[in-house]
Specification:
Helix content is 47%, strand content 15%. The protein is built from 17 helices and 18 strands. The strands form five sheets. The chain has a six-stranded parallel β-sheet with strand order 3-2-1-14-15-9, sandwiched between helices. Strands 5-4-8-10 form a four-stranded antiparallel β-sheet, with helices on one face. A three-stranded antiparallel β-sheet has the order 11-13-12.
Length: 510
């Protein structure tokens, strides 16, 4: 098995400050990056910002700022968000960096040399907001304006000289590629959407613009800038030191294992991106996962609607791990989801404060009062004890299988069920009634501590800060977290003492 694993978020368009959708994509990618690391993979996790295009140029002009100055400020807010979300990313790429410009220019030259690009004239509908071209059947009239049916963004009629990529040539090769790689696009509904779009007929794609200047110049014709999506998508290569394909980073991590994206940019990643790469003779990524939107009420968040949910405000009020847990548990991955104060508070109270926090507090407090914060040296595991402990070992293979298909909800549901079982075990075994039977009391405490350890390892990719606090009671550091130790029923037998634990989550009064 290849132990290298390359995982990416979309690179975010910094025309406005980050919102909950950005946070969701990043948290999802971080969950998988952390999980793969504790499974023993060497992970390269990338995020960043996409800083070229007409929308950026207009936003900068509106702010009376130079485009790069504008990007420097806004990009910093996304870099700061990465830190605030406790992302474990290995790199943060900006498309205004020299390394990226070199990669994009090289890819363009290859496509031009292979005669995949030609000069002509573009006339059609273009959305500056989406930086996307739309066919006539993809737009509609609304309040006297032309808008995209899919995004609701206003479109403009554009006529200008443009370079075109021979996308139509790649229709059948793409369909063949999808057939040979049935899990290239997930979830299944997104794959069906893409295949239907490609089968309906692909037209050559305009890949340069002359009407604005903020972008990477076309090498052979400097009055053109490269289409922002051909520019942006190449970030996945430029972060690996492409065009140096002999570089160790590129050799180790390309093709990418998975690109996590919002469903609104699926076409760019699942149609244009593999077509560009196949045309250039570069292997496409192994998977593109188009997740749903985080809605504000029943609507997609947008600056124009003024319904942006600010992740920073929610983190300030409820804490980061509470937000991470809610988004990973309550949103059906692949579908749209929303966030509400009531649901978030119920989640904190029920799952985090009651099930997890209370379990840890009760077991450790009982241990302190009856054994003196020591891990029992003498214990005897019964069939009942082994039954609950072995559940992790018996389900390990299925957990890995589900997570390899990005089934986050199965994973979280499994962890929640183990928390219920651990609480039930401690209640049913009632160690406070076994004070005359020290061996049995010791065994119940030992098993309960092992359950807390196993569950905390599984919770680490979801709520890393809190799980590390709990694992620290066993003197375990981040480097000590290994997924396969959930199979070990006596991991703690060589440990001597545990450290007292403070309150993990405070219940919210309603």
């Amino acid at each position: 098995m290849n132990k290298n694993f390359y995982i990416t978020t979309p690179i975010y368009y910094p025309s406005a400050k980050p919102h909950m959708g950005h946070a969701y994509s990043s948290i999802v990618a971080d969950f998988f990056a952390r999980l793969k690391r504790i499974q023993g993979h060497k992970v390269f996790f990338l995020t960043g910002t996409d800083e070229h295009g007409q929308k950026i140029q207009r936003a900068a002009e509106k702010s009376n700022k130079d485009p790069l100055e504008f990007c420097n400020e806004i990009s910093k807010t996304f870099r700061d968000l990465s830190s605030l979300l406790n992302l474990s990313n290995d790199d943060f790429i900006r498309t205004t960096e020299k390394r990226h410009s070199l990669a994009v220019t090289n890819l363009w030259k290859i496509l031009e040399k292979k005669e995949e690009i030609y000069l002509s004239k573009y006339s059609g509908w273009y959305s500056v907001s989406d930086e996307a071209f739309y066919n006539e059947d993809e737009i509609e009239d609304s309040d006297g304006k032309k808008i995209s049916k899919s995004s609701g963004s206003q479109v403009e009629w554009v006529e200008e000289e443009s370079f075109f990529f021979k996308l139509s040539k790649w229709q059948e090769p793409l369909l063949k590629f999808y057939s040979e790689n049935p899990k290239f696009i997930l979830p299944e509904s997104r794959k069906n959407e893409v295949i239907s779009f490609v089968k309906s007929g692909l037209k050559d794609l305009s890949v340069s613009r002359k009407s604005f200047t903020w972008g990477i110049k076309v090498p052979s014709k400097k009055d053109h800038v490269i289409y922002v999506w051909l520019d942006a998508l190449t970030n996945y290569l430029s972060a690996l030191n492409y065009p140096n394909e002999t570089d160790k980073l590129f050799q180790d991590f390309w093709p990418a294992n998975i690109h996590f994206i919002g469903k609104d940019i699926l076409r760019f990643h699942a149609v244009y991106w593999p077509a560009f790469l196949l045309a250039a003779g570069i292997k496409p990524p192994q998977r593109v996962y188009g997740h749903g939107w985080i809605l504000s009420g029943d609507e997609k968040m947008s600056k124009s609607k003024g319904n942006i949910l600010d992740p920073i405000e929610i983190i300030d009020t409820y804490g980061l791990d509470a937000l991470r847990y809610y988004l990973l548990k309550e949103v059906s991955f692949g579908n749209d989801g929303n966030i509400s104060k009531d649901k978030l508070e119920n989640c904190i109270n029920s799952d985090l404060a009651n099930n997890y926090g209370n379990l840890c507090q009760r077991v450790i407090l009982f241990c302190e009062k009856n054994i003196g914060l020591k891990i029992p040296e003498k214990y005897k595991l019964t069939n009942d004890d082994l039954s609950i402990l072995n559940d992790f070992k018996e389900n390990e293979e299925n957990i890995i299988k589900q997570i390899n298909d990005q089934n986050i909800n199965y994973y979280v549901e499994y962890v929640v069920n183990q928390l219920f079982k651990a609480n039930k075990y401690f209640n049913d075994q009632a160690p406070w009634t076994k004070k005359e039977d020290i061996l049995r009391l010791n065994t119940i405490v030992f098993v309960s501590l092992e359950l807390i350890r196993k569950i905390s390892i599984l919770l680490y990719p979801i709520i890393p800060n809190t799980s590390l606090k709990v694992l620290n009671i066993f003197s375990m550091k981040e480097k000590d977290i290994k997924f396969d130790t959930i199979k070990d029923n006596e991991y703690l037998k060589d440990k001597k003492e545990i450290i007292k634990l403070g309150i993990l989550f405070t219940k919210i009064k309603k």
